[in-house]
Amino acid sequence: MQAALDVNPATRPNAAAAATGPAIDVAQARPRTPWGRWAANALVALLAVQALVFLATNPRLEWAVVAEHLTGPAVLSGLGVSVLLTAVSMSLGTLIGTVLALMKLSGFATARAVAGFYTWLFRGTPLLIQLLAWYNLAYLVPRLSIGLPFGPEWASWDTNEVITPFVAAVLGLALNEAAYMAEIMRAGILSVDPGQRDAARALGFTPARTFRRIVFPQAMRIVLPPAGSQVIGMLKGTSLVSVIAMTDLLFSVQTIYNRNFKVVPLLLVAVVWYLVVFSGLSLVQRRLEAHFGRGHQAAATAARTR
Q1: What is the pTM of this model?
Q2: So where does this one cross the membrane (predicted)?
């Protein structure tokens, strides 16, 4: 009589194979159908089509009025003022912010205290209040003068003649932006390896040359992304200068729709131009990031290919 159980290991079937069934050919495996992604894509496409239909068929948008005023002289003049305010205020804000960042990183306690107080004051108060304060400076200081403290005056000017709406807008935007750029620049400078400064000092570089040739180019890789966001925020922040009668883009369209009562179409004109300038600034930002990040990107690519 044959044995009921086969005790020979060589002839005993593989228990794991018996439990899992026949072998699966991995080469013939297929990914699962992404039903969730298909549903999300369909929902997004449906919403996009609905938005396009709304924009194209809603008569209250009055696209003919938008096209009429999109390149109007008053609108283009206001657009130029907004772009000019952005460029001038951002340049001054970056320059002052860089000085404030160096003051915060210096070993001079008074400089650190002054820079800390500046950023605390300008970051802690709304930009609109700062614009109004500069615009109404003549209420506190009727005349601006140059001279010795508590001593004789050498020259003086009427404050209203000096602080025009444009000057008030530049001061408000630039000084407010400097407080934010100070923190951005400080973070970028701290990201540079201290050994770079030590090596520059060993080569005989002065502190100013070390910052200009060694620290600043490397810090820009960290500074550019948030600084680019600040430029875009500055462009949109110029719309606040309309409260001080500055003829920027928003003030220009407001002047027009106060005459013809076409509020929504004129606001769409402003939106279109803001988006156009924003797209151009985003392109410039990407180009600058690619320029200052060339060495880092090459090193990262070499490290991944090892």
Answers
A1: 0.77
A2: 38-56, 76-103, 115-135, 162-182, 263-284
